[in-house]
């Protein structure tokens, strides 16, 4: 595996710390929950275990092989999040993914504990914005946090997606940039909030409108 050159590492590490602070500022990361990664080629940088996303420092990010999750080199005092397998599963599945965001944002967690809205999406398309910016948000079955079984639960979700809910746990979103991955996570949290506020008798957008929006914006529903 080619190591990151120092300038690229600095750039990616600073972006990761910045996105962590923004996630906390938006109340998307309670306590020390959540983890982030960013990839350049075969190498990914991952947030450490047990450190809140608002307290990240560039020196304490772990460099790992983005496919296998193996550490890139000896990094004394650096312990990556236990959810490395979840991130590498997404990088293997979506080769265009360059960043992965996993959060326990409150409303997405609430939706991850409900029956999925339909067989294609756990969250209904109440407004156009979820369809335009993210697309469908399927539900992956429960797996114990930090295990290969949780990562393997993604295999049970067929098809394309930008974000997925992990049953009884949280959300996972990817992007071609870190900002894009965070934007998808924010949209999922907002869509879950709207759906909870609107209640069970809320009217989803008509299917032809959803189909037209997904086609126009290049998303999947
Ligand atoms: Zn988690």
TrEMBL record:
Q: Does the keyword Lyase apply?
A: yes
Question: Could you give a GO molecular-function term held by this entry?
Answer: metal ion binding
A Pfam family assignment: Aldolase_II
For the Class II aldolase/adducin N-terminal domain, which residue ranges apply?
14-196
| GO process terms (BP) | pentose catabolic process
SMART domains with a match to the protein in the record: Aldolase_II (SM01007)
The alphabetized UniProt keywords are:
Lyase, Metal-binding
Determine if Oxidoreductase is one of this entry's keywords. Answer: no
InterPro entries attached to this UniProt entry: Aldolase_class_II_sugar_metab (IPR050197), Aldolase_II/adducin_N (IPR001303), Aldolase_II/adducin_N_sf (IPR036409)
- Give the UniProt entry's GO cellular component terms: cytosol
The record's PANTHER family line, in alphabetical order, gives: 3-OXO-TETRONATE 4-PHOSPHATE DECARBOXYLASE-RELATED, FUCULOSE PHOSPHATE ALDOLASE
| Name the record gives this protein | Aldolase
Q: Which organism is it from?
A: Xylanimonas protaetiae
């Amino acid at each position: 595996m080619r190591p990151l050159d120092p300038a690229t590492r600095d750039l990616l590490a600073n972006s990761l710390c910045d996105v962590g602070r923004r996630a906390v500022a938006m109340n998307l990361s309670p306590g020390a929950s959540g983890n982030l990664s960013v990839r350049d080629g075969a190498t990914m940088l991952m947030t450490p275990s047990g450190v809140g996303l608002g307290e990240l420092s560039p020196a304490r990010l772990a460099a790992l092989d983005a496919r296998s999750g193996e550490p890139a080199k000896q990094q004394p005092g650096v312990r990556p999040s236990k959810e490395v397998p979840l991130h590498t599963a997404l990088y293997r599945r979506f080769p265009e993914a360059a960043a992965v965001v996993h959060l326990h944002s409150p409303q997405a967690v609430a939706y991850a504990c409900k029956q999925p809205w339909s067989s294609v999406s756990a969250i209904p398309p109440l407004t156009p914005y979820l369809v335009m910016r993210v697309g469908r948000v399927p539900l992956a079955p429960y797996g114990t946090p930090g295990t290969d079984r949780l990562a393997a639960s993604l295999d049970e979700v067929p098809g394309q997606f930008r974000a997925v809910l992990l049953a009884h746990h949280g959300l996972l979103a990817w992007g071609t940039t870190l900002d894009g991955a965070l934007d998808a996570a924010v949209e999922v949290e907002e869509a879950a909030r709207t759906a909870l506020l609107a209640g069970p008798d809320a009217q989803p957008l008509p299917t032809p409108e959803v189909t037209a929006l997904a086609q126009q914006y290049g998303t999947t529903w």
